[in-house]
Structure to design on (202 residues):
């Protein structure tokens, strides 16, 4: 079909929509990959790598850590695409895969006890118990990990960014695209849940 000056080629518009020269939608690429087209997964990686790497950086102390998270996330995605349902956007599904791998990375890297609680009485109580029970620190760390994993994702992310990765409230808010006060309140609710669970387990 000839394209007259000033008009647009519909096929070119489709290519431009994805910016990668491939007219297939994300759902098409998933379908093709599950049918054995390994190149389709490479196209998914190329299409979404930049945005998802920014997600990984929220959980990373440096670029090497971010790339490690992405490597694990792409591996998980490639072996789990059969569970993807097109009712949700692929970007949303991939975002969750990366976020979960980021959380795993942080918690595995921080197996030692984290200074997440400001409650002096709680800290003192556990310090006294450690004198009598050398395994208390291990038990407490396991409990912390379980409680953190059970937090709503937005609270967990705020807690990890500020308390584990050392972001201040402003930079955490910038990473998440929300107001500083929102991060502050999410983190406060997460810490309250931790205190309540640790206190109940004492």
């Amino acid at each position: 079909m000839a394209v007259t000056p000033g008009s647009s080629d519909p096929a070119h518009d489709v290519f431009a929509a994805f910016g990668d020269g491939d007219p297939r939608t994300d759902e098409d690429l998933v379908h093709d990959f599950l049918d054995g087209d390994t190149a389709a997964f490479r196209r998914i990686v190329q299409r979404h790598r930049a945005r998802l790497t920014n997600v990984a950086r929220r959980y990373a102390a440096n670029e090497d850590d971010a790339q490690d998270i992405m490597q694990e996330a792409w591996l998980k995605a490639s072996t789990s695409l059969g569970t993807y349902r097109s009712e949700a956007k692929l970007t949303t599904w991939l975002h969750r895969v990366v976020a979960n791998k980021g959380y795993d990375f942080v918690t595995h890297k921080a197996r030692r006890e984290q200074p997440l609680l400001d409650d002096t009485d709680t800290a003192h109580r556990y310090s006294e118990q450690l004198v009598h029970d050398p395994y208390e620190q291990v038990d407490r760390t396991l409990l912390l990990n379980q409680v953190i994993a059970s937090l709503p994702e937005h609270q967990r992310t705020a807690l990890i960014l500020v308390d584990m990765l050392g972001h201040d409230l402003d930079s955490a808010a910038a990473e998440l695209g929300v107001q500083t006060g929102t991060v502050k309140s999410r983190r406060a609710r997460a810490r309250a849940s931790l205190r309540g669970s640790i206190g109940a387990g004492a």
About this structure: The chain has a mean pLDDT of 75. The radius of gyration is 22 Å. The first helix runs from residue 10 to 18. The chain has two domains: 20-109, 120-201.
